[in-house]
Amino acid sequence: MSKEFNQGKIKPLIKIIAQILEQDPYLHKDYDKLIAKVEAEVPELKDKTKCPNCDASMTQYVYNLNVLGTALVINMAKAVREATRAGKSFTEANIVHIPTLPTSDAIRHKTTHCAKLGLIAKYIKDGRQIKGMWVITKRGFAALKGEEIPNGIIVWRGRTIERPDNMTTFAKVRARHERKVGENNNYCAEVMDYNPNDWIGFAGFHDGRLF
Fold first, then answer.
1. Cα dihedral angle (117, 119, 64, 103), rounded to 10 degrees?
2. What pLDDT score does 208 carry?
3. Cα 3 off chain centre by
4. CA distance 62 to 60
5. CB neighbours of 28 closer than 8 A, spacing ≥ 6?
6. Where are the beta strands (DSSP E) in 137-192?
7. Neighbouring C-beta atoms of residue 150, cutoff 10 Å
8. Residue 147: closest CA among 175, 119, 123, 122
9. pLDDT tens, position by position, 66-78
10. pTM exceeding 0.85
11. How big is the CA angle at 190 (ends 145 and 101), to the nearest 5 degrees?
12. CA 41 to each of CA 15, 47, 105, 199: distance values in angstroms, whole numbers, following the listed order
C-alpha cells in the first residue's frame, strides 16, 4: 500500500485570491471588500461551522467557572481536610469519591466542567482511572486560597485554549452569583460561607498534576 496525500483546498484558494487581486490590485487595502470577493468565489468560507479546507467541525466549547463548580471544589476540599484530620496523609486524603460526596447532584455533576478548567483531575492509579475518584489540582488549591485563575477556557478539537486576560477568583464568582439571585439559594451554602483564609496554609499537592 502506497502513501498519498490529499492536496486540500488551500492552494486552489490562494490561486483564486491571486486572480482577484490581479483584477483589482487595490483590494489589498480594503480587507473587508477582499474577503467579500473571496467568499463570493468560495461560498464554503461563509459556513463558520466547518473548515473550508477539510470540512472538519469548527465548533468550540466555552467552559466558564460558575458557582456550582466553585461549590464542588470547596466540598472536595472539606472532604480532604476531614480525611487529613482523621490521620490520612495529604496525598491519600486528596482522593475524593465524588458519588458519595455530601452535596447535591447538581454540584457532583460538575466534575468534567471543573476538570476542563484545571481545578480537579481524575485519579489515575497504575495507568488506569479509578471510577468516581477525583483529586484537587494545584490550581484548585490556589483558587481555594483566593488566587486568580482563568475565568473560563475554550475547548476546540480537544485542545484547551485559555484566556489569560479573563481571570477571576472564587470570591468574585460568589459575588456574581449573589448579584444574580441574592442570598436566597439552597444549593450553594458552601460558597456563601467561603473564606479564602480558611485554606491558606492548607499545604500539599497531589503528585503528578499539571495544573
1. 140
2. 40
3. 37
4. 7
5. 21, 34
6. 149-150, 152-156, 159-162, 167-168
7. 20
8. 119
9. 889 999 999 999 9
10. no
11. 100
12. 11, 13, 52, 59
DSSP-assigned beta bridge partners for residue 167? 150
Q: What is d(CA 46, CA 155) in angstroms, rounded to the nearest whole number? A: 22
Residue 130: phi and psi, rounded to 5, are -90, 120
Q: Are 154 and 116 spatial neighbours (Cβ–Cβ below 8 Å)?
A: no
pLDDT-based confidence at residue 119 (cuts at 50, 70, 90): very high
* DSSP three-state, residue 185: coil
Distance of CA 68 to CAs 26, 153, 164, Å?
53, 16, 22
Task: Name the residue with higher pLDDT: 55 or 93.
Answer: 93
For residues 114 and 120, give the distance between their C-alpha atoms in angstroms, rounded to a whole number: 6
Q: Give the Cα separation of 6 and 52 in Å (integer).
A: 14
- Residue 209: its pLDDT value, please? 42
Distance CA 140, CA 149 (A): 9
CA–CA dist 101, 111 (Å, integer):
12
Q: Write the DSSP assignment of 34-60 as a string of letters.
A: HHHHHHHH-GGGG-TTB-TTT--B--E
pLDDT at 183: 52
Distance, in Å, from the CA atom of 128 to the CA atom of 48, rounded to the nearest integer, reads: 38
pLDDT at 29: 83
